[in-house]
Amino acid sequence: MDAQFSSFNNAAHVTSFSTLSASIFKWLEEECKPQKLEEIVVDSLQNTNINGV
Questions:
Q1: What top-level branch of life does the organism fall under (predicted)?
Q2: Are 11 and 31 in contact (CB under 8 A)?
Q3: Among 21, 29, 18, which residue's Cα sits nearest to residue 7?
Q4: Are 47 and 32 in contact (CB under 8 A)?
């Protein structure tokens, strides 16, 4: 999730409310696709299994 936060932090532009809204919607459309979220979950589960947590 750190990578997701970093990409959000880089994508969100706070110069005005309309700019913020537009940048957040664009980020959501690009970074929160089901396939991408599935990859994050699978990677997390694999790391948990490897690390024995």
A1: Eukaryota
A2: yes
A3: 29
A4: no
The pLDDT of residue 14 is: 93
Radius of gyration of the chain (CA): 14
Structure confidence by residue, pLDDT tens digits, 1-53:
788 899 999 999 999 999 999 999 999 999 999 999 999 899 989 888 776 65
Say how far apart CA 36 and CA 49 lie, in whole Å.
Answer: 20
For residue 41, give both structure tokens.
């979950």
Length of the chain, in residues:
53
In the numeric block, which tokens belong to residue 23?
A: 């940048």
Residue-range domain boundaries for the chain: 1-50
